[in-house]
């Protein structure tokens, strides 16, 4: 098995774990973890898919993944802040509707 | 000089956002004016340039692609830039009346507002897939932050749900971008049009990007997050979200479809996208008919009206292109007017339940008038911007003998009339006994005026179609590669 195939399999596995977590978890923190794992799967795949044939690494995918990581970190920070605020206002850190609340 | 104007469009709002966070509270209003007022004056010379040359491209800091960043301005991006700047000014008036810049809530609101504007401008100028990703993230995060300034539990929950879906959608899009790069070795939207050949990997990439973008533009059946998010946000925020934020991801789909994959010949997937649009029009309108709250009616109307923007795919041609672009602009202005007026009504009544609206035509005449004018455009009655858009759709369908799509456009207009007249009729309904004539807080005149001006702009667009359509004709990619 070539090393690229290994990376692709790892990425697919990580993505699956992320999707599973996103669907199963109800606590928002777990959902955020799951989304981050999905993101990392994609980063692995992007680096693997652009693996050089002649041994010279291509700088562009590396730069893209680096930017992607920065965005993922800031989006996660934002989501965490939103989650804390949601907890302060509604007293719960999940998206299950409060049946007593009037829409 | 032109480069400086484009840079000003993006960096003035971003600079303003940073300054707002640093400056003393008494300066904030001045900073806001200083970064907003020059924007239309930046767009004027650009409009002359595009009318003349049709296209302007620049490379940032002289670094060539693929590592460098290229900006590109054509008639479509220019028109949406105009839409955004007009909304920033007019919806900004309404927002200024509600979120005083010097107050604490103003400090939370206005930097996000400027970030949103700067992000939209950068997105419209970007010419490569990855920059579109970055700017779309910026727009989405700023938009979600603005929803959260509403502060209620419902607003926060809607913002959180929107955020989770948007993050997942971005990942799908990013995966597509990675695959495209691995296949073609470039990310430039327009170079890809020449190098990317139809095949399994590029098709997978395109489907992934489309899926992500369809979630972000809330196209049926991926619209579930939109009504709660747009219905619970503060009025001016709903206006921006419905009028432009959901449109910019559709704009990317158009770019991908007609520029990057322009010569792929995709009638079957185009038909599928058109059917999604048809589903959006019928389902969104049907649900708008049964809502109990004014803002939810307007939010479901957005789900429906976004469907028209998908009809460009099956009807693919110059007329459909002009129709969809015109509809995008006209709906943007009319929907902003509706949400600003609905926000004013909600703020003065303390509720926007439809049964509380009775007799409102005498108590809030300006807001109800704005509501009525914007409805005229949304239903597609002449003379209004919405009429021009729907008329062009009908002509496009007629020329291709596409009777099904013609019937759909006509039916969509009827349904829009039904759910909007339901609201308007209630405001003019005067029960004989004013049993619960609650006291009313007058909305600020400036906020009512902003709604009225937006509605008037939507109507005025019906009279200004010739130059805009000529601009759009020059930018249609099919004209360049017949």
Which features would summarize this protein structure in a list?
heterodimer; A: 103 residues; mainly alpha; Helix Hairpins; B: 482 residues; two-stranded antiparallel ribbon; 22 helices
Brief sketch in words of this structure:
Chain A has 103 residues and is mainly alpha-helical. Chain A has three helices and no strands. Chain B has helices at residues 2-22, 28-36, 38-53, 75-98, 104-125, 129-148, 153-184, 189-195, 200-216, 226-232, 235-260, 267-290, 294-308, 312-315, 318-349, 360-363, 365-379, 385-399, 403-427, 445-460, 465-475, 477-480; strands at 55-59, 70-74.
Could you explain the architecture of this structure?
The complex is a heterodimer of chains A (103) and B (482). Helix content of chain A is 74%, strand content 0%. Chain A has 3 helices and no strands. In chain A, helix 2 packs antiparallel against helix 3 (59-90). Chain A starts with a helix and ends in a 13-residue tail after the last helix. Chain B has 22 helices and 2 strands. Chain B has helices at 2-22, 28-36, 38-53, 75-98, 104-125, 129-148, 153-184, 189-195, 200-216, 226-232, 235-260, 267-290, 294-308, 312-315, 318-349, 360-363, 365-379, 385-399, 403-427, 445-460, 465-475, 477-480, and strands at 55-59, 70-74. Chain B has a two-stranded antiparallel sheet. In chain B, helix 3 packs antiparallel against helix 4 (75-98). Chain B starts with a helix and ends with a helix. The mean pLDDT of chain B is 90. The interface between A and B is medium-sized, with 34 and 33 residues.
């Amino acid at each position: 098995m070539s090393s690229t195939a290994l990376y692709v399999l790892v990425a697919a596995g990580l993505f699956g774990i992320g999707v599973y977590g996103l669907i199963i978890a109800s606590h928002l923190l777990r959902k955020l973890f799951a989304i981050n794992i999905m993101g990392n799967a994609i980063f692995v795949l992007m680096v693997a898919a652009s693996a050089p044939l002649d041994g010279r690494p291509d700088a562009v995918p590396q730069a893209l993944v680096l930017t992607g990581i920065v965005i993922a970190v800031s989006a996660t920070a934002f989501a965490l802040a939103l989650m804390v605020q949601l907890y302060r206002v509604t007293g719960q850190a999940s998206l299950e509707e409060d049946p007593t609340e009037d829409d | 000089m032109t480069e400086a104007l484009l840079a000003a469009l993006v960096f003035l709002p971003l600079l303003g956002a940073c300054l707002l966070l640093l400056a003393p509270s008494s300066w904030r209003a001045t900073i806001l004016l200083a970064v907003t007022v020059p924007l239309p004056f930046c767009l004027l010379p650009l409009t002359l340039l595009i009318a003349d040359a049709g296209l302007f491209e620049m490379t940032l800091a002289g670094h060539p692609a693929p590592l460098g960043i290229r900006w590109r301005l054509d008639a479509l991006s220019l028109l949406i830039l105009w839409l955004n700047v007009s909304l920033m000014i007019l919806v900004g008036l309404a927002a200024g009346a509600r979120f005083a810049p010097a107050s604490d809530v103003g400090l939370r609101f206005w930097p996000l507002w400027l970030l949103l504007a700067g992000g939209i401008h950068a997105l419209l100028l970007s010419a490569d897939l990855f920059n579109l990703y970055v700017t779309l993230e910026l727009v989405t995060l700023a938009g979600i932050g603005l929803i959260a300034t509403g502060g209620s539990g419902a607003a926060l929950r809607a913002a959180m749900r929107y955020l989770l879906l948007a993050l997942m959608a971005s990942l799908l899009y990013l995966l597509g971008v990675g695959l495209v790069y691995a296949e073609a070795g470039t990310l430039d939207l327009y170079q890809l049009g020449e190098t990317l050949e139809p095949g399994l990997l590029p098709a997978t990439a395109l489907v992934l990007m489309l899926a992500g973008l369809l979630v972000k533009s809330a196209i049926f059946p991926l619209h579930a997050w939109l009504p709660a998010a747009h219905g619970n946000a503060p009025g001016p925020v709903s206006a921006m979200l419905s009028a432009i934020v959901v449109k910019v991801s559709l704009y990317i789909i158009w770019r991908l479809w007609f520029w990057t994959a322009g010569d792929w010949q995709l009638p079957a997937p185009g038909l599928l996208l058109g059917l999604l649009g048809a589903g959006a029009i019928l389902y969104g309108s049907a649900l708008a008919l049964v809502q109990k709250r004014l803002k939810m009616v307007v939010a479901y109307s957005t789900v429906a009206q976004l469907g028209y923007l998908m009809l460009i795919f099956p009807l693919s041609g110059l007329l459909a292109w002009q129709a969809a672009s015109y509809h995008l602009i006209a709906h943007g202005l009319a929907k902003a007017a509706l949400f600003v007026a609905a926000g004013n009504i909600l703020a003065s009544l303390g509720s926007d339940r439809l049964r509380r609206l009775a007799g409102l035509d005498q108590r809030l005449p300006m807001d109800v008038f704005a509501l009525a004018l914007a409805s005229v455009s949304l239903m597609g009655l002449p003379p209004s911007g919405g009429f021009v858009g729907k008329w062009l759709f009908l002509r496009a369908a007629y020329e291709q003998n596409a009777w099904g799509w013609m019937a759909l456009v006509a039916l969509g207009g009827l349904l829009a009339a039904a759910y909007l007249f339901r609201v308007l009729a209630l405001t003019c309904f005067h029960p004989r006994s004013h049993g619960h004539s609650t006291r009313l807080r007058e909305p600020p005149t400036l906020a009512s005026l902003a709604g009225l001006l937006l509605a008037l702009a939507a109507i005025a667009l019906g009279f200004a179609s010739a130059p805009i359509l000529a601009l759009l004709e020059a930018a249609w990619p099919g004209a360049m590669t017949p």
